[in-house]
Amino acid sequence: MTGAASGIGLALSARFARAGAGVVMADVEGDALHHRAAELTAQGAQVTAVTADLTDPDAVERLADTAFDLLGDIDVVCNNAGVLGPVGQPLWEVPLERMRQVFEVNHWAHVLVARAFVPRLLERGRPAHLIHTASMSAFVVGAGSAAYAASKHADLAVARSLRADLRGTGVRVSVLCPGRVDTPMVQGLTAPRGAGGDTSVSAEDVAGLVWEALGSDRFYLFSNSDAPLRLRDQFDDVWRHVSLPPPSPEEELWPAPKATTVTMKR
Fold this sequence. Notes:
InterPro entries: HdxpentlteDhPtlF (IPR054968), KR_dom (IPR057326), NAD(P)-bd_dom_sf (IPR036291), Sc_DH/Rdtase_CS (IPR020904), SDR_fam (IPR002347). Belongs to the short-chain dehydrogenases/reductases (SDR) family. GO terms for molecular function: oxidoreductase activity. This is 1-deoxy-11-beta-hydroxypentalenate dehydrogenase. The termini are far apart. The strands form 3 sheets. A 4-stranded parallel beta sheet has the order 3-4-5-8, sandwiched between helices. The chain has a two-stranded parallel ribbon with strand order 1-2. A two-stranded parallel ribbon has the order 6-7. It has 7 helices and 8 strands; from the N terminus they run αβαβαβαβαβββαβα. Helices cover about 45% and strands about 15% of the residues. It has helices at about 5-20, 30-40, 55-70, 95-125, 145-165, 205-215, 225-240, and strands at about 20-25, 45-50, 75-80, 130-135, 170-175, 180, 200, 220. It is α/β, with parallel strands linked by helices.
């Protein structure tokens, strides 16, 4: 369980632990992670906290080694680590280093976790389920959200590719696409224009949705009730452009340039 120190990752860890599953919780925020793991342990949960920078390939490989050593076999991998990054700024104003940091966590860390865990899952030949946490921002993009939305689009593509790669095996893939969730990551945040939905759910609601989908062939997991309307608006816009006729030769696509006179002095 990555990104397990708070939010959806913590709620997933608690939901699995309550069902009696052994859980390895991973996060870069070591103090918060161990505190939450201790709380769950005090409630009788079987959890192990592993501080790990998931943008480091070696750290991810060590995490996979630790998880398999502790649990023996793994049934579910929740690829959940994520950051919000800069919001409210147009693309040309977002510092490139900040944008790269968002991609490191939201995209590349998910790639590294999949590359570390999937071969081991296939080798064992047991049924397993890989959950990728993307976002409604993988479909619906508003102003001032370029870094986050682009990283979530990339993660959706990775999940879709993994689904195709793993077809016919015992490893199933789902992509979790929550809208606004009441987590520390979004507390106090005003969503940029067009980027947020009209509903909010709890992290526990999202964890319950994931739990109910385990072992099924459900690929897209949408948590918020306004998801159908938001998706329809997006795909209606796509379809409108698909069905538009090509411009006629007589149509003036650009304003005619104004004649200019340049006088050169000697």
